[in-house]
Amino acid sequence: MLGSIRSHQSSAATARRQNFCHSATLASNPYPKIENLQKSVDVCAKLITDRDGHKEVIGLSINRPLTIGRNPERSFYVIPDSSVSGLHCTIFAVRSPSGGVIVSCQDSSKNGIILNGHRIKKTSVILMNGDSIRIPDSLTFTCTHVWKDPVEKISVFDPTPPPQPARKHIGHYVVTSQCLGSGSFATVHLALSMDRRCQVACKSIRTKKGHRDELGQVMKEIKILMGLNHPNINRIFDTQEDQHFIHIFLQLCTGGDLFTYINSFTEKDCKMDEDEVKYIMFQLLKGLVYLHDKMISHRDLKPENILLHAPGPYPRIQIADFGLARPKSYQETFNVCGTVSYLPPEGILALDQKHLGYVGMPSDCWSAGIILYIMLSGSHPFDYDAPSDSCNACICAVRPA
């Protein structure tokens, strides 16, 4: 009887794999059948492996996780090898804030996975174009992105990002040229922590001559934030400084940001579930209470600065981007900073009347209320006639706090 069950499972797994791969995915709920992987607009990335001498191509679609493991009831792509756990790992694909795609792998196994030669265990990693993941003593998968982010601007990898991934050793970290995001003052690159054996995000801020006092203040605030340790606050692991950059090594989040997550609902002409909004808001307020208890205000809370630790519904969120954070925030500040459409009324008044000030902690609470409204309604509570770019502009005054 036991042999019959094993034989049935093996046959089912073989048939499942044959229908799933080689330019087609299995017609099984919730995964749609893709007759031609190369032409399908649903496929944003591919996993390619060589199995029993045959090339197999697995298509990944947005918000349709792919499970890999030994147990046919728990895994969509079944590998019967003894070294493979029942549910070994889950591959996610979500939209990135820059318009491309974030592909991540969440390890759930006992013996981990090998990412580009480095062992990863019980954590989530981002798979960039060309990365390989290997299940120990089993298959190796190569990730290929069909959708790609726009070409990034000049960054720490001058003069331009190389066509092939490059690496630089900075302290105890290996920083790659794979850019996760960029702004006016900084770029964020994917890095590997040699001590923690996990991926991290490296935020590199370009330094300017004649601004050493300002940079000293930045480093002072970073050191304060390095003392923070809360599940809903993006953790700073370390900092390094050289002649041209300040490098901040941050906890990596693989689920994108809250702004993109909210947009995924509005694109489908639906709204977030109220229970999920409650869960996200509960985490946001817990993070704020932790910050405010330490007399630190964020001063730039908005969905773009709230990261999802991993993809999927009811995500764990982390408050990020503390570039405008301020210690001793019980004191009134005359330095108006943040994003205009999330400023409280007293902050808006202080833009035009320089003698007016406001306190950072109540401002954070106002911003949190706007975020709650956006999650529930899918729109901003205040309409502006100005273009959207100006609404999201960061206003930094020159007067000292």
From TrEMBL:
InterPro entries: FHA_dom (IPR000253), Kinase-like_dom_sf (IPR011009), Prot_kinase_dom (IPR000719), Protein_kinase_ATP_BS (IPR017441), Ser/Thr_kinase_AS (IPR008271), SMAD_FHA_dom_sf (IPR008984). The keyword Hydrolase does not apply. Residues 66-120 form the FHA domain. Residues 174-401 form the Protein kinase domain. Keywords: ATP-binding, Kinase, Nucleotide-binding, Serine/threonine-protein kinase, Transferase. Pfam families: FHA, Pkinase. SUPFAM superfamilies: Protein kinase-like (PK-like), SMAD/FHA domain. ATP binds at residue 203. It comes from the Eukaryota. Belongs to the protein kinase superfamily. CAMK Ser/Thr protein kinase family. CHEK2 subfamily. This is Kinase-like domain-containing protein. It comes from Lentinula lateritia. The lineage of its organism: Eukaryota, Fungi, Dikarya, Basidiomycota, Agaricomycotina.
